[in-house]
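SEQUENCE-TO-STRUCTURE ENTRY
===========================
Question of interest: how does this chain fold, as expressed in backbone structure tokens?
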Amino acid sequence: MKIPLFPLNTVLFPQGELQLRLFEPRYIDMVSECLRSDRGFGLCLRDESKEITKEVDFCMLGTYAKIIDWDQMDDGLLGIKVVGERRFEVENYCVQKNNLYMGNVTLLDEDDGLLPDAYKNFSQLLKQIAKRYKLPLIDVPEQFEKAAWISDRLAELLPFEITAKQLLLEMNNSLNRLDYMQALLIKINSGEYSES
């Protein structure tokens, strides 16, 4: 599967939503083509540590995103809303004349298991966050039984630094994600967690 790649300083998880404001011509052209062909593009975390060395400056695992809404904003920028569909791995890529990355990617399978009883505290935590901040997540009660959906939503919402979020995205097993988040939360609670 060949898709345009959009490096950003954020991590998008499957079924997560993200608002973007675009001004660069290459990305406006990309959005126009995606809307015309009803296709998506790949969001990859920009790797700031590699910019100086001229190596690939984005992570090779990202999320395929579809545009679900768009609008011309008052400041002249193009605003789009995207939803993450599936994780992918970049096999290879090239840079087009307009400096847009195009990548050959492999879509990754998601685990679709139910949340085991031993992990129900994560479902409760997500419900508490959704209720406290009046998030629309609370409107889909059936999702609170699904391990992948719960791990993705918590990874989005909890105050982890960006490299930890990318590591969570790269994990293929939802329970491993939840275990890792539990360890991070313990560090945050004890004051040992730092963004280094």
Summary: Residues 2-107 form a domain with the Archaeosine Trna-guanine Transglycosylase; Chain: A, domain 4 fold (CATH 2.30.130.40). Strands lie at 2-8, 17-22, 41-45, 61-72, 78-95, 101-107. The longest helix spans residues 174-190. The chain has two domains: 2-107, 117-190.
